[in-house]
Amino acid sequence: MSVTVDEDARALLHRARAVYAHDPVALRTLDELDRRLAEPLRLALAGMVKAGKSTLLNAMLGDRIAPTDAGECTRVVTWYRYSLTPTITLHPKRGAPRRMPVHREDGRLVLDIGEASADDVAWIDVGWPLDALKSVILIDTPGIASLSADASARTVTFLAPDEAASGVDAVVYLMRHLHPSDVRFLEAFRDTAAGAAQSVCAVGVLSRSDEIGAGRIDSLVSAGKVARRYERAGDLSSLVLGVIPVAGLLAESARTLRESEFAAFRELAALGRDDREQLLLSADRFVRTDALTSLTREARAELLARFGLYGVRLAAALVRGGASSSSELSSRLVEQSGLIPLQRFIRDQFRTRQTALKVRAVLLALEKLVKERPADGVGELRAGIERLSAGAHALRELSLLASARAEGLALAPSDAAEAVRIVGGEGVEAAARVGLPEDSEPGTVREEALRLLDRWRSVSDSPLTERAGMAACRVVIRSLEQIVSEIPAGRALGPMADVMPARGPADRGGKDAGQQGQQDQPALREQDEQQRLTALADGDDL
Description:
With 542 residues, this protein is of the alpha/beta class. Helices cover 54% and strands 9% of the residues. It is built from 23 helices and 11 strands. The chain has a 9-stranded mixed sheet with strand order 4-3-7-2-8-1-9-10-11, sandwiched between helices. It has a two-stranded antiparallel sheet with strand order 5-6. The longest helix is centred in the middle third of the chain and has 24 residues.
């Protein structure tokens, strides 16, 4: 049986325990690294103040748990992880952790830190019985570039410390528009999180996208164009793997839609066209105009607070278009919110690579420990770190993707786009890597992988291929070889621990592989994928 990359990492930590057997400080660090390998992916939500982080977190969970007000608790890093029963634990900077009461108001948790200030709290840990949290730990962070310098510093110190690996495996970064502070933070996170692995582990979210189009029903179409422009922006293209427009408030409210709200939308949809357009002309008119609807001002104000004007307009339009139940309306609103593409991206780019991402973080932390606390036998640990970093193929794929985003690959544009796809830039499933529909037969996938393997061996052997291009070819060839070897078992590609030469790809620009993949998808595949993702959004699975 082959040894996986996480088994190699565990063995390395076991050897480190022998080296530091008499060092209590080092042993506590190794305990933490063991826990990090065993726990789910750590995914943080970050962004400037009022970017909508807590709202999007609630939407991803399908429950209104995270507080969204400007209270003291929103200035503290808060972890949300799976637990059989609800628990809240405050971890102070000094002293022992203490349990907090579990209390909800209007569905949201009340995180009351009592007489303590945010400056006294290291983090808050929320355990909650949601299936979505079985596969990921979500971390809500204070806004950066805040008027409170301490709150901003807490986020930067946690996610992008100067002398250590990041505390998370990947980041969902929210922005209302591209600001210099966004670029500075993402640069710091890339440099900290990547380390020797040279990987990009962030996705940008154009949050509150409904505001870009002034609440029009086509607002997300306009937001999508802005997101594509940001993806190609020189400052951002090397810092995130993609930019996705999301109307977070609509997504949160859609996933927690109430029957009374559906009834209200049905009444609005039943109005005559002129009356409906007049009522929904602006937020102020919607709340203050009493003559056109039997809904009270309080009910209309609540709808506006929950869904925004964009959501109210869209919900009424969807009811007119045939949404005949609250569950059907909820599904359609989620589909229109942009949440589904974000869920898919997190699944394809982060969760399927969680082992490689966690191992990378552990290796960086272990490297820091060896540097700061020298002891007899650390030479063997350094060699093990270098060997695992260079030999884990999943880490080489991440490195190649990062190079493709940062400076391009030393390949022809079409080859560069295909290379990005093969190493998992559009998903790590075997069919996605070879450019076939998800439901393709294993034999078909294997045949295409063999065809591509022959082609890429020819590209690698070509005298026209530069040295940096040859390094990229080796990563691509190894990925294709792994597909061919695993197809008979019918398994999806995951992290691979095969040894490769430790040489990094670099150089010239290539075409955006994400755009190329979208252009080449057949219409039927697009329709089937959308139906599958709509079903995904109905459950708690992220």
